[in-house]
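Open question from group meeting: does this chain pack into something compact, or does most of it stay loose? Before anyone orders reagents, we agreed to write out a predicted structure and look at it together. Recording both the input and the output here so the notebook holds the full record.
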Amino acid sequence: MGNATFKTIDNTIFVGNLPFSATDEELRAIFTAGGRKVADAKIISNYKTGRSRGFGFVRMESTEEADAALDLNGTELSGRKITVGRGKHKTLRRR
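Structure tokens returned:
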């Protein structure tokens, strides 16, 4: 079986515990508040049902913007406290 290894994606922020009703636009609005610059915001959905999976990614314009965005951890969106952390790229290694 393979082992998963992770490396940080420089300007990408992982956002978890999103309400299933949240939209890409709402996600972008949270991260642009305070003057931060967002390159892209996307909520991940199930490819069969189209329903949100409850998490997404926000790509900031710079590493400095991404560092500042980490302060949004615990921000409330539709009654839920979102989790914010560095995005990680998953690669599989086979033994």
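Observations to bring back to the group:
Residues 3-93 form a domain with the Alpha-Beta Plaits fold (CATH 3.30.70.330).
Residues 44 and 64 are 24 Å apart (CA to CA).
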